[in-house]
Amino acid sequence: MVTYKSDLSNVNWDEMKATLKEDAFDNGRSPQQLKDSFENSYATCIAYIDNCIVGTARLLSDGICNAYLVDVWTFTPHRRQGIASKMISLLLEKLPGQHVCLLTEDAVDFYEKLGFSEGDTCMEKVIGKWLVNHS
Q1: Quick one: DSSP state of residue 127?
Q2: 113-133 burial by CB neighbour count: b if 16+ within 10 A, else e?
């Protein structure tokens, strides 16, 4: 069973670093830099199976109109099981009225299935109605 958490208090950053490296998704950040990156994000989601990290996603946002989706990753043995889709869905719920941008070269079809479209500078999607952030 997959568990999705936004609470970063018990994340094993060394484990995250090692798993990212093992899965060829390591961009060189140290465990402390990973921690700082996630803690400085608007919202985060980490997926676990049996307390092992199997997925990550995070958002950078101004909280009003613009957000950027980054670090979307699912550990290769667990891909194509809906983990990334669920993490993204949980994060997008936190962005009513915002324009969300992301960069990808190899997952265009995946993001299109989630409602993103190719824009001039990035894949993009508006969550709900532009700039309508409160009910």
Answers
A1: -
A2: ebebeeeeeebbbbbeeeeee
Domains and CATH numbers, the chain: 2-126 (3.40.630.30)
Please list the residues that pair with 53 across neighbouring strands.
48
CB 59 within 8 A of CB 49: no
55 CB-near residues (< 8 Å, 6+ apart): 2, 45, 46, 47, 73, 74, 75, 78, 83, 84, 87
pLDDT of residue 130: 77
28: left (phi over 0), alpha (psi -120 to 50) or beta: left
11's tokens: 């994340």
pTM: 0.92
* Chain segment 78-103, per-residue pLDDT in tens: 999 999 999 999 999 999 999 999 99
Residues in the chain: 135
- What mean pLDDT do residues 2-29 have? 95
Phi, psi of 112 (to 5 degrees): -60, -40
